[in-house]
Design brief:
This protein is 71% helix and 1% strand. It is mainly α. A hairpin with a 2-residue loop joins strand 1 and strand 2 (373-374). The longest helix has 64 residues, at 572-635.
C-alpha cells in the first residue's frame, strides 16, 4: 500500500500542523455550564458521581469515532498519559476504550479528508499506543482488545498505510497481543503476513527513518512527527536523539513480534532465511535501547529448536558474530554463549561450528559467573570436551589443526593440570609463587627495555608455572602479555589474553586495564561495537573505583568513545547508502549533461558539414552548367 507522507506534506494545512499541546480557551474545571459539548470527555472525567462518570465516559468512547471535534486529540493525549502510568487499571477497558481506539484508527486509514482536518493526524498514533499499553501486562485485557476488533486496524498500520511513526506503535501492540497465550491464536490468523512485514520492517526501518526524517532538512520534516517525538518541546538535537531511539524500538519490537512465533516454533523456515539471519546477527538496540536483546535474543530462541540450530550453524557470518559477542562486554554476552553451547551440544550441528567456536570459547573456560549464571566456565569446558576421548583415542579428527591444539590446551589446563596441582604441597606452591613473581619482574624488565618478544616468552613461562588457584597473579600475567601483543600489532592474541584476564577477574569489578587493552585490540580489527562496549566498561569501572567527585574521563578513552560512537551510529549505514545513491544520481545527471553537450556539438558539426557539402554540390552544379553553356556557344 502506498505511503501517504508526501500526500500529508502536500495537503495538511499549517493550522493542523501546530502542536496538539496548545490549550483550548474553554476550561472544564470550574463549571460544566461553560461546556456545550454533550459528549465532552473532560466533563465526564470530572463527574463526582461514579455511576454517572462511567456512563459519561462510555458514551464518549462510543461517540468519539462518529463525531468531528477538535477536543478528540486532547482527550486521546490524556488517555495516553493514563495508559502509560496505569496500564493495569481495568476501568476504561470495560467502558469501550478498545472499540473506540480501533474505530478511530479505521477512520484515519480510510478517510484522508478527516485525517488531514484539524489535528486528527495525531489520533491513529495515540489510539494504537493506548491499545499497546493496556495489553502489555494483563492477558484478560489483551483478550478483550482482540474481541473489540483491534487486530484489523493495527494490521493496516503495520502494512504502512500511514508512516513509520504509527507502524512503531502498531508493531508494539501486536507484539503484546502475541505474547499472551489466550490471544496468540487470533494473531496467528495473520501469521504469514505478520512474519513477512516484521522481517521487512526490521531490515529496512533504519533506512526508512533516516530517509524520511533524520536525513531530511529540519524545515521539511513533518511537524506532527516532530511534535510526537518531542512532545512539542524539542529542537533539532532532541528530535534526532528521539528518532534514533524510536527507530531502534521499531526494529526491536519487530524482532520481538517474530520472537513470539519462534518461541512456538512457528514460521521458522521463513525467519531462518540466510540473508535475514546475516542481517539479524548485526541488529542491536544501540546505546539508545540497551534493554532489548534485539537480534541476539531472536537467534537464541531459534537455537532452542532443531531447525533453528541447523540454519544458524549453516551461516558462517552468524557464527562469527556470536563468537565475537561471546568475548565482549555486551550486555547480552551470555546469550551469545548460550547460542554456541546449544549448537555445540547438538550432534547434528556440533562439527559445523566446533572448529571456529573453540578458538573463542577457550578464553572463557575460567568464567565463574555471568549475569547471575554460576559455573559458566565449567559448562563451557564440559561442552568443548564432551567427545575429547574420541579425538584423543578414537577416529575423530578435526579439520582444523589450530582447533585440535586448542582442545588439547583446554584438556591440559582444566583436567591434567588440575590433577597435578591437587597433589602439590603447600611448600611447593609457595616456591612456585615466589618463582612466578621473579619471572613476572623479569618480563616487566624486558618489556621496559624494548624486548617485547622476550617479555611475551617470559610471561608465558610464568603462566605455565603459576598455580591455577592464583587467579589474581594469572590476571596480571595475561593482561601484561596482552599489552605486549598490542605493541606487536597482534590484535587477535591481545583480545584472547585480555579476555582470559577478564574471565579470571571478578564480574563485579573487572580488570580495568584488560578492558582498555581489549578495546584497543578490537579497534585494530575494526570491531567498533565491541571496542565501544569495552571502553564504556573501562570508564564505568574507573568511576566506581574512585571518588566520583572530580573524576575525569581520560583523553585517550574519550577519543576512543567518540570514534566508535560515530562508527556505530545507528543510522551510519543508512547515511552511507543515501550518500552513495545521491552520488550516483549526480554522476548520472552529469554524464547525461555531458552526453547532451557532446551530441549538440556533433549535431552542430554535422550541420556544418552538410552545409559545406551542399555548398560544394551547388558550386559543382553551377560549374557544370557554365561548362555546357560555353560549349554550346563555341559550337554555334
Amino acid at each position: 500500500m502506498p505511503n501517504i507522507l508526501n500526500f500529508i506534506r502536500a495537503h495538511l494545512p499549517e493550522s493542523a500542523m501546530d502542536s496538539q499541546h496548545q490549550k483550548k480557551n474553554t476550561t472544564h474545571k470550574n463549571s460544566k455550564s461553560l461546556c456545550t459539548n454533550p459528549c465532552c470527555f473532560f466533563c465526564a472525567m470530572n463527574e463526582a458521581d461514579p455511576s454517572l462518570r462511567r456512563a459519561g465516559i462510555a458514551k464518549c468512547f462510543k461517540e468519539m469515532p462518529l463525531r468531528d471535534d477538535q477536543e478528540h486529540v486532547l482527550a486521546l493525549s490524556g488517555l495516553w498519559h493514563i495508559a502509560m502510568a496505569q496500564p493495569d487499571d481495568p476501568e476504561f477497558q470495560f467502558l469501550g476504550i478498545f472499540e473506540c481506539a480501533a474505530n478511530l484508527i479505521r477512520r484515519g486509514v480510510s478517510d484522508r479528508d478527516w485525517l488531514l482536518r484539524d489535528q486528527n493526524i495525531y489520533i491513529p498514533y495515540y489510539a494504537a499506543h493506548i491499545i499497546g499499553s493496556y495489553t502489555m501486562n494483563k492477558a484478560q485485557f489483551a483478550e478483550r482488545a482482540v474481541k473489540s476488533g483491534v487486530i484489523s486496524p493495527l494490521m493496516e498500520l503495520l502494512r504502512g498505510r500511514m508512516s513509520w511513526v504509527e507502524k512503531r506503535v502498531a508493531v508494539r501492540a501486536l507484539g503484546h497481543l502475541a505474547s499472551h497465550e489466550r490471544t496468540f491464536d487470533a494473531i496467528s490468523m495473520h501469521e504469514a503476513e505478520i512474519v513477512y512485514l516484521s522481517m521487512e520492517t526490521a531490515s529496512t526501518c533504519l533506512d526508512v527513518v533516516y530517509d524520511e526524517f533524520v536525513g531530511v532538512e529540519h524545515c521539511r520534516r513533518l511537524k506532527y512527527h516532530c511534535d510526537l517525538l518531542t512532545r512539542g518541546t524539542g529542537g533539532l538535537e532532541i528530535e534526532n536523539r528521539k528518532a534514533e531511539e524510536w527507530a531502534s524500538q521499531l526494529q526491536c519490537w519487530s524482532l520481538y513480534l517474530l520472537n513470539c512465533f519462534a518461541c512456538k516454533e512457528r514460521s521458522l523456515n521463513r525467519i531462518c532465511k540466510k540473508e535475514f539471519l546475516q542481517e539479524l546477527s548485526g541488529m542491536w538496540g544501540g546505546l539508545a535501547n540497551r534493554s532489548s536483546p534485539a537480534g541476539i535474543g531472536l537467534i537464541r530462541t531459534l537455537c532452542y529448536s532443531r531447525t533453528g540450530r541447523r540454519k544458524v550453524a549453516d551461516s558462517k557470518e552468524v557464527i562469527e558474530r556470536l563468537c565475537n559477542i561471546s568475548r565482549s562486554s555486551d550486555k547480552w554476552q551470555y546469550m551469545a554463549i548460550d547460542c554456541l553451547l546449544l549448537i555445540l551440544k547438538d550432534p547434528d550441528t556440533r562439527y559445523k561450528v566446533l572448529n571456529a567456536a573453540v578458538l573463542f570459547l577457550v578464553d572463557l573456560v575460567d568464567l565463574r559467573s555471568l549475569r547471575g549464571r554460576t559455573k559458566l566456565g565449567d559448562a563451557i569446558t564440559q561442552t568443548l570436551l564432551q567427545d575429547y576421548d574420541q579425538l584423543k583415542y578414537g577416529n575423530l579428527d578435526l579439520k582444523s589443526e589450530s582447533a585440535q591444539r586448542t582442545l588439547e590446551e583446554v584438556w591440559d589446563l582444566k583436567v591434567e593440570r588440575k590433577k597435578r596441582e591437587s597433589i602439590l604441597t603447600e611448600e611447593a606452591a609457595r616456591e612456585r609463587r615466589l618463582l612466578v613473581g621473579v619471572m613476572k619482574q623479569e618480563g616487566n624488565r624486558l618489556f621496559w627495555s624494548g624486548d617485547i618478544e622476550g617479555a611475551v616468552l617470559k610471561y608465558t613461562e610464568a603462566l605455565e608455572l603459576c598455580p591455577l588457584r592464583m587467579r589474581k597473579e594469572r590476571v596480571v600475567l595475561h593482561s601484561n602479555r596482552a599489552q605486549c601483543h598490542l605493541l606487536l600489532r597482534d590484535a587477535e592474541s591481545a583480545i584472547s589474553d585480555s579476555t582470559r584476564a577478564l574471565s579470571l577477574s571478578s564480574a563485579v569489578s573487572p580488570h580495568s586495564k584488560s578492558l582498555w587493552r581489549r578495546s584497543q585490540a578490537y579497534d585494530m580489527k575494526g570491531f567498533a561495537k565491541e571496542s565501544l562496549m569495552d571502553c564504556l566498561m573501562f570508564i564505568n569501572d574507573r568511576i566506581k573505583s574512585r571518588d566520583t567527585i572530580g573524576v575525569s574521563i581520560p583523553y585517550y578513552a574519550a577519543r576512543m568513545i567518540t570514534k566508535q560512537m560515530n562508527a556505530t551510529w545507528i543510522f551510519a549505514t543508512a547515511k552511507s547508502k543515501k550518500d552513495l545513491n545521491d552520488h550516483v544520481v549526480e554522476n548520472q545527471e552529469s554524464n547525461s549533461h555531458d552526453h547532451e553537450t557532446t551530441m549538440t556539438m556533433d549535431i552542430r558539426k554535422t550541420k556544418k558539414g552538410i552545409a559545406v557539402y551542399a555548398h560544394y554540390c551547388r558550386r559543382t552544379v553551377e560549374e557544370e552548367e557554365e561548362e555546357r553553356a560555353r560549349k554550346d556557344r563555341d559550337r554555334i
